[in-house]
Description:
The chain is 49% helix and 13% strand. It has ten helices and nine strands. The mean pLDDT is 97.
Amino acid sequence: MTIPVQSRAIVTDYYNIEEFFTPEQLAIRDAVQKWVNTRLKPIIDDYAQRAECPTHLIPEMAQLGVFGPFIPEVYGGAGLDYISYGLIMQEIEAGDSGIRSIASVQSSLVMYPIWKFGSEAQRQKYLPRLARGEIIGCFGLTEPNHGSNPAGMESYFYEEGDYYVLNGRKMWISNAPFADIAIVWAKDSEDKIRGLIVERGMEGFHTPEIPRKWSLRASATGELVMDRVRVPKENLLPGVEGLKGPLSCLNSARYGIAWGAIGAAIDCYRVAVQYSLERTQFGKPIASFQLTQRKIAEMLTEITKAQLLALRLGQLMNAGRATPAQISLAKRNNVAMALEVARTARQILGGMGITGDYPIMRHMMNLESVITYEGTHEIHLLITGQDITGISAFV
Ligand code: TGC
Ligand code: FAD
């Protein structure tokens, strides 16, 4: 017997994975989900259409605790575990990948390096204000000539009295146009990569916006231009040198993206299933056609596999056992999954799928950046290949 359309709930946790979450993790997920549904989803299409970042939401995000959830409470963080962090990323990205970017850059790429590699004075000075959203940070690794291969970076600095003098250019930097501080990775006079905290207002430091994006339109992306910027010596991150500094931060951010992408996929899936049940052609709901059922069954299968991957990776993160290669595999798989789900969902909606009345096209365009940033789809495959074979195929 067929159950009437109206009485069907759209299941997105097909394997009851939430049974593995603690009551605290579920409460955090539900609180963020509620905020996304009531505060973000109603406005996000307008902001994306206008290519404007809804920065007025930042204080609310801070209030929710999405900035530095895994940072200890003593520094203003929430002291939560990595599954909670993943669930937060998942729920925000169900709203928009660009808004998730604000939270993941602030947490994993700005607060994380200050917490892990900063001096005690730097932690005290910056972390509580970053957690409260009073200041926003950005992360400058990529350069115009060095994206997948950051080791080749050309930005450099040298000592001059109580200062370092910093020169160079960073490209494609999320949050740069309005960030108050930037973690800038550059080479010292011995050619070692180091991290510097650069503050807005320092002479010679500019952050022009990159216009005309078709992706992440509600996220502000910019350049960092550094022309003989005098950075006080106390702004050098003392705890790390070499490429492993920025790459360690990427582990945390890539992990968050592996969860975030599931949120975007679930949002597309829900909309597509609902639409397929309501839209009739040839006198029947389009959900009744085998070709549509194949699409929705395969979408849910892939979402479920991604959820299980994220859960297990979260357990390994909590145990301190997740390897960078395991994180790469999950980031690569889950983002590609979400992009495929978005494309399939768009097809189910036919012409309606390209309009801003539904979130699918926006998610799809956003995911075209997500599959490129934090390491491209190809780079993560090569990381997995290297882990399996022991042979680097990057060059
Ligand atoms: P390689 O020789 O392999 O490694 C150099 C040193 O780094 C160590 N290492 C890592 N450490 C921690 N975590 C990781 N994931 C690490 N991967 C490598 C490594 O052990 C070594 O340490 P040591 O002590 O021996 O010096 O480095 P390589 O130059 O061959 O590069 C490897 C490669 C290609 C995988 C790496 O460069 C890479 O991942 N490239 C991709 C670049 C990337 O992901 N950029 C992201 C920019 S940030 C961004 O996109 C933010 S988007 C934010 C948003 O809006 O959400
Ligand atoms: P390239 O490295 O030039 O790659 C071009 C193509 O060649 C890709 O398909 C790549 O996979 C392929 N390729 C490169 N090398 C190899 C190889 N060895 N084998 C096979 N294929 C290869 N960066 C930051 O530092 N901070 C940020 O906040 C940030 N935010 C971003 C926001 C957005 C919206 C975007 C689009 C990017 C952002 N990035 C940021 C930059 C991002 O990390 C880079 O775009 C990414 O690492 C790829 O670098 P690239 O664009 O220079 O591409």
